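Because showing beats explaining, we think one record worth quoting, sequence and backbone structure tokens together, and here it is:
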Amino acid sequence: MHGTLAEFKKDLVLNRVPMTDENREYKILRVDRGREMPDHPERIASKVFVSYSWDDENHLKWVHDFTARLCADGIDAVLDQWQVMPGDQLPEFMERAVRENDFVLVVCTPRYKERSDDRIGGVGYEGDIMTAEVLKERRHRKFIPVLRMGDWNSALPSWLSGKAGINLRGTSYSEKEYKKLIGVLLGRVPQAPPLGRPPARAGRSATSSFGRATSYESISRDEGPIKITEVIAEEVTSPRNDGTPGSALYAVPFRL
């Protein structure tokens, strides 16, 4: 038995627990590369890679500040401006960043779309990696478009066409859209309410086995099976036998 989650993680690292498939997956995803929330020791931060194009200095600063805000809000964000050092292999960084993170935020601008569609530079290389992962792993929700400039038609890469995204255009972007993004990254998405009971049906008619309709009050399905409590003998009629449809039947009124 493990007293705390921290002790369990330590035992995983030191291989002191049976390496079941479940424990192995937990170790890879949450112990080897997961970063814990500082104010909640047993919560793991979502790992997010921010993919963008180097449009201009203003755009670089916006991406930097946006990613820093994600970190401040509990998201373990990966940005090349922080992680890539002189001498690093850029292709390896991009491959690991796409493959090893829980989400990839694609900051969409017209220039990003152009370079992604034409497979130019780092954006084009990341596009190859991301489309290959979508094709192989089918994890469509991992890749989230974030509209920064232009509109969806002019800024969304072709391989992301049809995806729902987050609109953060403008100097002061939408706080509502930003909070929606944070909710997705933290797994705090709105849930459908529980399914309730159908309302009781209004008054209806019951038809006896002899073909005559009898009216009765509204009956809820919660009241159990419908039962005939009494046949009204004095109102039973004899067949007319006049050749019309149903004229050979008895009319038998009853109460429920």
In short: Confidence is low (pLDDT under 50) at residues 23-43, 205-220.
